[in-house]
Amino acid sequence: MSTEPTAPTTIGGRIVTDEGVLENGWVRIADGRIAEVGEGPAPGDRPADLTGSWIVPGFVDMHCHGGGGGSLTSQDPEQIERTVATHRSHGTTTLVASLVTASIPRLREQVRALLGPVSNGDLAGIHLEGPFLSSVRCGAHDTSMLRSPDRESVDELLDAGEGAIRMVTLAPELDGAVEAIRQLTASGVTVAIGHTDALAEQVEPAVDAGATVATHLFNGMRPLHHREPGPVGTLLDDERVTVELICDMVHLHPTVARLVARHAGTARTVAVTDAISATDAGDGRYELGELPLTVSGGEPRLEDGSLAGSTLTMDAALRNLVLRCGLDVTEAVAACSTRPAEQLGLSGRVGSIRSGLAADLVVLDEQLRPTEVLKDGGRRAASG
User: Which is the catalytic residue, given 61, 238, 274, 315?
Assistant: First the structure.
């Protein structure tokens, strides 16, 4: 799926940049890229009048399983395209495909099915959330397929990915985990810690070995305890670690999200959706991987009542951060766009509004609902 760039144009409004908000700002777009950003009278052509609107960088979601009824594990090109289109209509212009636990042969097949969408730019890479996870904190993962990492299985997955695998989540207490972290980081893959029952003393060596992300902090983890900080306290307090937050206000209470964001700051806080196929598709029966689940009131749950991903979109995550957690718009934009782009090594292409980057932009109304989404300068209506 692609969007044809438009002719050079200029749009104006409240521009959220890395340095702050340009209240009377404008962005000039040419050849699908940001040519110039300024404040006050725009040179040349008259900007499109978006007075009262916010213009923010396109959202970057580094943890997503599906949307619009489509699943990124399906190997079906139409479902993959539907997922990308669904999230793009909500402002996500950079999307990483997350796969759940399966056998190594099955994961190889799923990874290969995503190589085309990665190469054409519809997806920014692949995230393997499993199979190297704890059975104690597995969440919506098939326990029969969980396993400890070993060099051969990691090599098989990396070979299948042909450089498209950007992140792998694992539990650091598993046999071979620290060695796998070194193996993955040596191949340029970001390692995240998640779905873990580890003690603090097991988390610390994993971070020392190169793990730099906490997969949806608090969820799928041994809880924080005042005498045993476990993964939550250890990862949150380590300046080397970026923390993911599922800001649907179901996975996390607003107070908890606010406390984490304040402690980690904009340099280490990332909003993710963990969205499944039910996103924008309504309540009903669905599957995540091979596991059946039911969505009621927008909440996906397994038969035992535990949460199984979300139906969140990134525009809703931004609104929740601002309106329910008390962050300002610049902090929320950093969590939804700038910091995830940096974490994925894409800050030279996306995630901010500055000259030379892709013209991936979202126009938000005063209620922070998207009215337009621009991908490489191409404009389309949004689903707010």
Answer: 274
